[in-house]
Amino acid sequence: MDDSAIWIVCIIALIIGYIFWIHIPANMARNRGRSALGWVILTWILQPLWTIVLLAILGDSSEKIREDIRNEGR
C-alpha cells in the first residue's frame, strides 16, 4: 500500500470516529429533553468531551423534569 492510500484510510477513520463522538452528546441531549441539533452545533465549536461534561452537569431540562413527574403520577 502506498502512502496516499494510508493517509486516505486514516482520514476516513478519523471522520468515522468524530461522527461517533458527536453521536454521544446528541443522544445525551435528546434523553435530557434538550435540543440535539443545538448540542451537535456546540460540539462542533467545542470538543465532544466538553459537551458531554456540560450535559452531565446540566442534567435534565425543566420541561423533562415536569414531564417525568407527570408520568410518575399515572
Rg, alpha carbons: 17 Å
Number of domains: 1
Structure classification: mainly alpha
Low-confidence regions: none
The end-to-end distance, rounded to whole angstroms, is 62 Å
Proportion of strand residues: under 5%
Order of helices and strands: HHHH
Mean of all residue-level pLDDT scores: 89
- Percentage of residues assigned to helices: over 70%
Sheet with the most strands, sense and barrel status: none
Described by the principal axes of the CA atoms, the overall outline is elongated
- Total number of helical segments? 4
Outline of this structure?
By secondary structure, this protein is mainly alpha-helical. The chain has helices at residues 3-31, 36-45, 48-58, 62-72.
Structure description:
- The chain has 74 residues and is an all-alpha fold.
- The protein has one domain.
- The protein contains four helices and no strands.
- The longest helix has 29 residues, at 3-31.
- The model has no long low-confidence stretch (mean pLDDT 89).
